[in-house]
Automatic annotation (TrEMBL):
Keywords, comma-separated and alphabetical: ATP-binding, Ligase, Nucleotide-binding, RNA repair
Biological processes annotated in GO: response to reactive oxygen species; RNA repair
Protein name per the record: RNA ligase 1
GO molecular function list: ATP binding; RNA ligase (ATP) activity
Listed EC numbers: 6.5.1.3
PANTHER family: CHROMOSOME 28 C12ORF29 HOMOLOG, RNA LIGASE 1
């Protein structure tokens, strides 16, 4: 089993899904949506999901730490996607068949170009040396986050390559009820995936920082445990998301003992997100970013040792 929480591929839903011809609650402009049925996915049962570790699914953008030019580096998620014409053909097939299966891609002509440094994610299938798309037509992959690339400026704000460290939000080792924002050596995050969350990511559901003083950090996947998870049952999960304070999350991920990851998203169950104050926003947090001679994360080092009753209360000084 890979290190807990490593997210390389699209994670399957805990329930079998179906396509409905109604506007998507998740993607603006999408005329259909994928919803869960009440039938548990056989993949989940085969992976012994009832004994899995359950963690919060975070709403940000996926990142990966691995080597680049011989040094531990932060990589941003970049899926190779179909061009417009191929996407239209695929959607017509999906509507007609009510399924993504049995669609044939032209790997050489149907996809947008990607940077030369792009590398496919672990587990991507290859044919004749070429990476192949998944059932949704995407080929998951990564590009290194370089300081000169403005497209990834918020990724770059949470990493210091001179100090070889990243700004991480995680549970405190002594008290898992409390979170900490701290600088972690990139080498300690090697081969791990993380979620970038913050002011300028996905409309900032966690209410971090503000436009003048943005706050961003990386959260290791699998680190925010759901302590009293609901059973794997459609109605009980629906009730948990609607009525439990701990259920104020985008979704949950089951980490099975054989390495299989299974998820459910609020949108799968026909629920809004965000809906009220997210659970993570209200967790207490302490800042532990000591001042370094290299100027490592100076805005956070000013707050070193300070505690906040809620994550959303962390404000950087102007």
């Amino acid at each position: 089993m890979r290190r807990l929480g490593s997210v390389q591929q699209k994670i399957p839903c805990v329930f079998l899904t179906e396509v409905k011809e109604e506007p998507s609650r998740k993607r603006d402009g999408q005329s259909f949506q994928v919803v869960a049925t009440e039938t548990v996915n056989p993949l989940a049962l085969e992976a012994s999901i009832d004994s899995a570790l359950v963690t919060e699914k975070l709403d940000g953008t996926c990142c990966y730490v691995t080597l680049y030019q011989g040094e531990p580096y932060l990589w941003a998620r970049l899926d190779r996607k179909p061009n417009k014409q191929a996407e239209k053909r695929f959607k017509r097939h999906q509507r007609a068949q009510q399924s993504c299966e049995d669609f044939t891609w032209n790997v050489e002509e149907d996809f947008k170009s990607v940077p030369e440094s792009w590398t496919p994610a672990h587990g991507v299938k290859h044919h004749n040396g070429r990476p192949m798309p998944d059932e949704h037509g995407h080929t998951p992959g990564w590009v290194p986050v370089e300081k000169s690339n403005k497209q990834y400026c918020w990724h770059a704000s949470v990493v210091d390559y001179e100090a070889r460290a990243a700004l991480v939000l995680r549970p405190c080792s002594g008290d898992e009820n409390v979170l900490e924002i701290t600088a972690v050596p990139l080498a300690d995050l090697q081969d791990q995936t993380l979620e970038l969350i913050g002011t300028n990511v996905n409309a900032n559901p966690y209410k971090l920082g503000n436009k003048k003083q943005p706050v961003h950090c990386l959260v290791p996947h699998g680190s925010i445990e759901v302590r009293k998870p609901p059973p794997v049952d459609f109605q009980q999960l629906l009730c948990w998301f609607q009525e439990s304070l701990e259920g104020q999350v985008e979704g949950i991920v089951w980490h099975c003992s054989d390495g299989t990851l299974i998820k459910v998203h609020r949108h799968h169950l026909g629920l809004k997100w965000p809906d009220g104050d997210p659970c993570l926003s209200n967790r207490p947090v302490v800042v532990r970013v000591e001042e370094h001679t290299n100027g490592l994360f100076p805005s956070f080092s000013i707050l070193h040792g300070r505690s906040f009753s809620r994550l959303q209360d962390v404000q950087l000084e102007p």
